[in-house]
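Quick start: what a row looks like.
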Amino acid sequence: MASLSLNGVGVSRGVAIGKAYLLQRDQLKVREYLIPPSLVKAEQERFRQAVDIAKEQLAEVRQKIPATTPVDIVSFIDTHLLMLSDKALAKDPVKLIDERGCNAEWALKLQRDALVAVFEEMDDPYLRTRKDDVDHVVNRIQRILLNQNDNIQIMLDGRLKDSVIIADDLSPADTVTMQNEGIVAFVTEFGGPNSHTTILARSLGIPAVVGVKNALRYLQQGETLVVDGYYGALLASPDKTGMAHYQQRQRAERRHHAELSKLKELPAISRDGLVISLHANIELPEDLAMMNKVAAKGVGLYRTEYLFMNREELPDEEEQYETYKTVVKQLRGRPLTIRTLDLGADKTLSKESRHALSSVANNPALGLRAIRLCLRDTDLFLTQLRAILRVSADGPVSMMIPMVASVQELQQALTLIKQAKVELQEQGKAFDDTLPVGAMIEVPAAAILSDVFAKYLDFFSIGTNDLVQYTMAADRQDNAVSYLYQPTHPAVLRLIDMTIKAGHKAGIPVSMCGEMAGESRYTRLLLGLGLSEFSMQPAMVPEVKSIVQNSDVEQLSKKVRRVLRMSSAADVEAFIELLNSP
């Protein structure tokens, strides 16, 4: 049999070899019909029972997760359990059945479409992919309503051991269940690098490739597969030479991981003695478990958006303070950088629920989001500012403002911070009056004006995800233009260089919290540009630390100056290959 090569996006590193298990699922065919008034209550009860069964299924999955499993992995299942109890999925469809007289499946579909529309308009790529979680939970309920079996639930008999799962998509519950059954990798036709499932794969250490179009069509049940999570490659029925190559890579990978595990307690110091700070990006207090596992030195980015989502009422000052305090206590003296609210243009927070969808921008990426939204709704902003200021009395906390594009915006934000301090003083509540205030440099205008911004701020943090997107005018989630999303484009590198230089000249720290900071192939490039503080997904810390320890920053600085004179991303990529070569 001839070998077949398919390509997608590698979302979880590693090389795996196993037998293909094609997970074929029946397509959900939702019928839409009206219910006679006399049967509405029975239809509502049918929906409630389906939700209850879905809860029982997820609770069973959670119960079977080994006690040694990190908390951050368990939290993915907990998130879906919470969604099943949320009004938006548990109660609103019941109302639709009554108000419109539609059947349960139709009501759930209508509610799903409304929720997904909200997420799809979000600018933040991570938050936008949360629609996947809505779909996973909704599909589970729909299969129960339609009496369709969930294949994953009935295959817990050992047949998945050492298999590579091929599916259209997988939910976090699917992934956790199959990992417990001993799968070696998974490949999906859909999905992206920010979905919960792919994040979970990274946490579990399962090699994964997503976006492999027509994988279910071209692959055969039981054939030998090689999954390369580094390069997003999939090789079916490899010949002897190909198999030997990947087996050798697996052995090298195991040796490498063994070496990385020895670095946990060692500092990130370069060969020429430069101390580099490696911090973690987190979203939930539960994420700290993984951060502790890799001994990150602190939190360089704490996203606060999840406190505000999937609820009718906004979190008040006290709830926010207690949540932040939980993180500070668990950090035990390590620094915490809290990013203020970064919701997108799709949501304006109305007076009643402060969470109603009142307008959708034509272009959310360029609309009312992040600091723009907070300056529009100062009550919302001041509540969060007071909570952050209060928690600064409990440990080393910094505050970071996202998407600042002008000095005027920055001055307005700083004025509101002063106002929050006055309000707390009047209430007799403690806070650190010297709490550092910084900004995310993620808009080209901010990078160009970074020398001016530095006069007002205590630190910079470069958000490469948006900086690349705005510089290249290309949405990386849009397959038609994603090829333009180039972190190594000379224009992007010049903006990064400009920001680092401005920070150094002003004597303020400059870190990077975008995905580029956790991509180890860029570590030497960034070190050469003068970056000494990195914040990334916790799982990437050991790899980046290893590269730091094997780098001479002074020598890199002399070499890397060349990239600022290059004219294309291809030239830069070729240079990086040489920079990283032994």
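That is the whole record. Confidence is low (pLDDT under 50) at residues 345-361. The radius of gyration is 25 Å.
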